[in-house]
Design brief:
The protein is about 25% helix and about 25% strand. It is built from eight helices and 24 strands. Strand 12, helix 5 and strand 13 form a beta-alpha-beta unit. Bound molecules: flavin-adenine dinucleotide.
Length: about 375
């Protein structure tokens, strides 16, 4: 029986598996998802005070739709022999979907780097939450004033002093000027201290800023597995894919590993907002390619973001210039609805497959331009 193998159990991997199951219909096709953990981690919610809740059992999504889960980590992809090595075992594939995601780039040469906390993984976010749980009047330093650092800093501000540090001269440098006013007002309202144009040079005891935790939020890169399918990758470590999300004749890629075109001037962001529809398309196409069913093009919906700003609400933006469409309480309502919306349906094959068929999320709650 032909075999589709999906590497990764994040948004891109889970939705690839569901997309492949949708295309399979009643045909004979084996689908296996390989990921080391038992859960889909809802990474966009890891800034929340109880990150342990930001997960969904993979079995509740995969079992109803007839997808096998192999709890293992892939170390090798051999595209010549069409097989992967997972925890030492060779597994053959006819089509592969690479959806192994991304990881935080930890500083290698920073003295004391081993003391850094992060909210990049479920384990990392839980370790930070446990470390700070019973400390009173605590101080946290957040390094990196981009999307993740801002969500971390504003969430931590509810429970103590926060210092936000970035080597850029302005807050949210990569987010551009669109939402900057809203972000600065929120940081003022929450009393988040800022040091911009500042590089952290050491993390240790008796440092110049006494902190209970230093949270590293500066930069992510795609899984190193991309290097095994292409010698060509972008500055985020992602492999180029075509409109059908194909990287090689028998390999598709989705989510944070794939540099898909968004429009003439942009590639997709490393974001759940893009990983989910990419997964649906890549998985569908991997199965469709084997079954002789027409393939789908990846046609991204409008680019939107919603940045949580803790007790100061959230800012919802639209377009690549990130025009602020809603902020404060109204922005927070959008964020809360998104955070519910990213939770996939469970235990019900019909609902899971119907969601896999809706490549673009219906988000009627997004405020419109007009
Ligand atoms: C704090 C935070 C807030 C965020 N907020 C937002 C937001 O508001 N909006 C938004 O759109 N995005 C947000 N993101 C980004 C978003 O979470 C990612 O873009 C998204 O998770 C990418 O999905 P993915 O499936 O490609 O990768 P991942 O979520 O990284 O999943 C990768 C999967 O692959 C598995 N894996 C890795 N290596 C291997 C291997 N060698 N073998 C087998 N399996 C492997 C992992 O275990 C995991 O299951 C946020 C991220 C963080 C950390």
């Amino acid at each position: 029986m032909a075999h589709v193998v999906v590497v990764g159990g994040g948004f891109a991997g889970v939705w690839s598996a569901a997309g492949a199951a949708l295309a399979r219909g009643a045909a004979d096709l084996r689908i296996t998802l390989i990921a080391p953990g038992e859960h889909l981690v809802l990474r966009p919610r890891l800034y929340e005070p109880e990150p342990a809740l930001a997960k969904v059992e993979l079995g509740r999504i995969l079992t109803p739709i007839g997808v096998e889960h192999l709890g293992a980590s892939v170390s090798t992809i051999d595209t010549g022999r069409r097989m992967v090595v997972a925890d030492g075992a060779e597994i053959g594939y006819d089509r592969l979907v690479l959806a192994a995601g991304s990881r935080l780039v930890r500083p290698r040469d920073l003295p004391g780097a081993e003391r850094l906390f992060d909210i990049d993984t479920l384990d990392g976010a839980c370790r930070l939450a446990d470390h700070l749980r019973d400390r009173r009047d605590r101080t946290a330093v957040v390094v990196g004033a981009g999307f993740v650092g801002l969500e971390a800093a504003t969430a931590l501000a509810a429970r103590g002093r926060v210092l936000l540090v970035d080597r850029s001269a302005v807050v949210g440098d990569q987010l551009g000027p669109g939402p900057r006013g809203e972000i600065e007002s929120a940081l003022d309202e929450l009393g988040v201290e800022r040091r911009f144009g500042t590089t952290v040079t050491e993390v240790g005891d008796g440092a110049k800023v006494e902190a209970d935790a230093v949270v590293w939020c500066a930069g992510i890169t795609a899984s190193e597995l991309t290097r095994q399918i292409s010698g060509d990758f972008d500055d985020l470590g992602r492999v180029p894919v075509d409109r059908q999300l194909r990287a090689l004749p028998e390999v598709f890629a989705a989510g944070d590993t794939a540099a898909a075109a968004f429009d003439a001037g942009h590639t997709v962001m490393q974001a759940c907002r893009h990983a989910t529809p990419m997964g649906k398309v890549a998985g569908h196409n991997a199965a469709a390619d084997l079954l002789g069913v027409p393939l789908r093009d990846f046609t991204p919906g409008p680019y939107v973001t919603c940045l949580d700003l803790g007790g100061a609400g959230a800012v919802f933006t639209r377009g690549w210039d990130r025009r602020a469409m809603a902020s404060g309480v109204a922005g927070k309502e959008v964020k809360q609805r998104i955070n519910q919306h990213i939770h996939p349906p469970v235990d019900d094959a019909a609902k899971i497959l119907a969601a896999a068929d809706r490549v673009h999320l219906e988000l009627p709650f997004f405020p419109r331009d007009e």
